[in-house]
Please model this.
Amino acid sequence: MTTVASDARALRPSRFVAFALLCASLLLSTSAFAAIQAKPLEWRQGKQRFSGFIVYNDSTNTPRPGLVMVPDWMGVTPASVEKAKQIANAGYVVLVADVYGKGVRPKDAKAAGAQAQKMYADLPALRARAALAVETLRAQAGKAPVDPTRIGALGFCFGGKTVLELARSGADIAGVVSFHGGLDTKLPAKPGEVKASVLVLNGAADTYVPAEHITGLQSELTAAGVDWQFVNYADAVHCFALESANSPGCMYNERAAKRAFSLMNLFFHERFGG
Model:
């Protein structure tokens, strides 16, 4: 038989329990204010201005690795900022990099394609803008919890090609990760000039990336002495890591995306020394 105490004092928590409950309440209140931050950030190159976002979880001030994230050909969008938030929660400070210029925000795929082709036609300019984004992220040390000695880059589609060009240029960063990016280039990597390790994550069914571009990239990076990895994901097409992608030939693939992001984190964990 269960006996229920009738003495009201039996229902009162002890002072210790009350103190513990108060501490727990304060902890919960404090953590409620810790959230993912996405702060607008501007930088310039001569008269050209750029506008992106610095994204990180402010639950701790401990410096952590920084990643320059170059979005797909739509540029800086709410969807790209949301993607940066996902990545930042894995323990990074992420700069959503604008390489088009402030106010240049394509309204549709046709406009985006035209803007991307404009950048592809001037690879030195594209590389310079990506490098400027790296330096902009490094300069956030002391303003955001980024460790300026541990910097990498990643990109999607157009952004994937951009970070490969950044690596080819000899940028002094730990590594780059290309998600379903273009692989060909008019300015191939030169032996001894590439400092970054390279991870390429590709959809095996991507019709925008022909087999000759894959073998061409692998031969190029090998000849240049680059530390590279290339991974093909079965049944994945272009855009497989972007949740918003939902058109023929450019489609989100949850299985491939999860595996790709896991491998990205392992790659950067190694490159940043844990």
